[in-house]
């Protein structure tokens, strides 16, 4: 069971990280409560709730995101250290989303039973004819032959 759980959690974490990658939104969106430069939310960065950002508020928010990037404590952040921190932050966000989705009892942790419960629900949705197996005709269809979602240009 331990191996099954580790495999499931690894798959879920990887799926969440891949699915969680997004492009940075336009700075105009900040004024409307959306994500702006660096994916920052105006409401969270606006420490004094004035409705706008000062340089100090902006810098404090960015500094907080990079606080752990200097892994070796030498006062410099290398590309590798920054990349490692970005990967860690994205993985943590993906893990939080997965826990929120799967955590039936709301205790903030996943059990093998909660993971299996979600897997059964997902399987049941795919098994459209309720015969206990999923065949090719029941699998979700892709958008056009040979075209993957990541290949589409907007």
Automatic annotation (TrEMBL):
Keywords on record: Signal
Any Pfam family: EF-hand_5
The EF-hand domain, residue ranges: 114-149
Position of the signal peptide: 1-27
Ranges annotated as biased composition (Basic residues): 142-154
Region described as Disordered: spans on this chain: 134-154
Domain of life: Bacteria
Record GO terms (molecular function): calcium ion binding
Name of protein: Acid-shock protein
């Amino acid at each position: 069971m331990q191996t099954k759980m580790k495999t499931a959690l690894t798959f879920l974490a990887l799926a969440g990280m891949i699915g969680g990658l997004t492009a940075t939104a336009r700075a105009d969106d900040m004024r409307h409560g959306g994500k702006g430069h660096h994916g920052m939310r105006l409401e969270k960065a606006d420490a004094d709730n004035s409705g706008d950002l000062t340089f100090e508020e902006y810098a404090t928010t960015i500094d907080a995101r990079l606080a752990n990037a200097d892994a070796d404590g030498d006062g410099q952040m290398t590309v590798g250290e920054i990349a490692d921190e970005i990967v860690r932050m994205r993985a943590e966000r993906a893990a939080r989303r997965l826990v929120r989705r799967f955590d039936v009892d709301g205790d903030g942790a996943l059990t093998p039973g909660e993971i299996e419960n979600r897997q059964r629900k997902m399987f049941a949705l795919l098994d459209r004819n309720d015969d206990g197996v999923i065949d090719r005709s029941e699998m979700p269809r892709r958008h056009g032959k040979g075209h993957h979602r990541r290949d589409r240009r907007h």
